[in-house]
Amino acid sequence: MRPHSHSIGQDWPGCRIKLHFIPPYCIFTSDKGVDPERPDDLLAPAAEKVFELADPYIAAAALRETDPGKSLMIAKQNDAPWAHNLAGVILRHQLKTEEAIAEYEKAIKLDPHNPRPHHNLAIILRAQGKTKDADAQERMAEHPD
């Protein structure tokens, strides 16, 4: 049985690159050679696309600091505990507290044993002066069972 594959084409001025992702391999092809002085100009955007396909967590986490909007977009495309927790972190840093709380609660609902969203929710609750609720979340983070 042949493994599932993806191909992504990307145009840059004067160059076309094609990325073939056949797990576990990734093959780059181009109609022009890569400038040996600036290979990142061609490969970095293609690598970002690979991570979006192969492991959206890595793509979203890597972009959290440099491009939080894109990181949030990738996270919101995934209904997984990591995605909701990461979205909560980004929203908290954007001072969108209520949206962050909602994301942490979604993460907790999907995986109540994951300590990260409990801890992150506790940070917001403590900042809001809800010490008892924050302490309860910290206890769940420390002893999820």
Topology:
Blueprint: E1 6-12, E2 15-22, E3 25-30, H1 40-54, H2 56-63, H3 68-76, H4 81-93, H5 97-110, H6 115-127, H7 131-142
Antiparallel strand pairs: 1-2, 2-3
Helix pairs in contact: 1-2, 2-3, 3-4, 4-5, 4-6, 5-6, 6-7
Would you write up a description of this structure?
It is a single chain. Helix 4 (81-93) packs antiparallel against helix 5 (97-110). This protein has helices at 40-54, 56-63, 68-76, 81-93, 97-110, 115-127, 131-142; strands at 6-12, 15-22, 25-30. The radius of gyration is 20 Å and the shape is elongated. The chain has a three-stranded antiparallel sheet with strand order 1-2-3, with helices on one face. It is an alpha+beta fold. The protein folds into two domains: 1-54, no CATH class; 55-145, Serine Threonine Protein Phosphatase 5, Tetratricopeptide repeat. It is built from seven helices and three strands; from the N terminus they run E-E-E-H-H-H-H-H-H-H. The N and C termini lie far apart (41 Å).
